[in-house]
Amino acid sequence: MKIGLAGASMMLSGWKEGIKAASQLGYDAYEIFGEFPQTDADKISPAEREDAKALAHSHRVEIAVHAPFNSLNLAAFNRGIREESIRQSIEAVKFCKDLGGRTVIIHNGEYVIDPAWGDQAQRARGIQWDLNLDSLKRIAEAAEKLGVFLCLENCNFVGNKMESSLEDLLRIKREVDYANLKFTLDIGHSRLAEGVEQALRILGDEIRHIHFTDNLGKRDDHLVIGKGNFDYAPLKDFVRKFEHIVTLEVIRLDSSLEPARESIKHFRKIIFD
Questions:
Q1: What's 167's domain CATH number?
Q2: Distance CA 143, CA 262 (A)
Q3: Which residues, other chains included, contact 66 with Cβ-Cβ below 8 Å and sequence gap of 6+?
Q4: Residue 132's pLDDT band (boundaries 50, 70, 90)?
């Protein structure tokens, strides 16, 4: 298991500063938040990428990248928005590869038609389902060629997401049919949906990345680890044996290192004490 620092916990710091901070605080990995205000892959030159790869290597920090998702939609009816969503996702994959990483976190698209509209709404949602699959296939193909794993995050606590259940996630993986399409298990999202134990049972061996979070059970708080009331007992054994990155996903629009410092201290106590 590698403990990852979430770039989202220090959103106003530059992504390269995040690599140094991860090393300084005793993390093994750093998950770059792949959009504003932390980074914009389109503006990062090959030379800068090469320098950052050397920086991560020298600090022994593994890189992961969370693909952009704000204002994007892999299932959009609007072709321009959909194509841009695919393009930015593939750029996140290339960025990750250039920095020596192998893990990109991605979200499914979102429905834009309310099911209350009746039969035509269901037909429209079916079209969007297929568009989402096509988008993921194109991104997974690009990732496969670069040796990168595409880790689909469980967001089924949100009403308009393509996946309304864990079974939907499995169906999406099956229909996309790329071996490098795996899952990011966000345990906070699981708590707000079908529960962590159910997620572990259903997604199981296909989980290749974890967002370890804390909340109060009512919303997706992304608190400093230890500040919520999450019951971590059901997943302790799974996390201890996990062979990939466990990102402590705190979200702060800040540059302070304190949330990350406090989170890793509590994480070690929760998992290893």
A1: 3.20.20.150
A2: 34
A3: 7, 8, 31, 32, 33, 34, 92, 104, 105
A4: very high
Chain segment 244-264, per-residue pLDDT in tens: 999 999 999 999 999 999 999
Q: How many domains does the chain have?
A: 1
pTM for the full predicted model:
0.95
- Report the candidate in 249, 267, 114, 237 with the shortest Cα–Cα distance to residue 184: 249
Nearest-10 Cα torsion for 36, 37, 40, 43: 130
How far, in Å, CA of 263 to CA of 249, rounded? 9
How remote is the C-alpha of 86 from its chain's centroid?
16
A 10 A CB-CB count for 264 gives 19
Give residues with Cβ within 8 angstroms of 239, minimum separation 6: 1, 210, 212, 246, 271
- Look at residue 30 in the predicted model and tell me its pLDDT: 98
Q: How many CB atoms lie within 10 A of CB 4?
A: 28
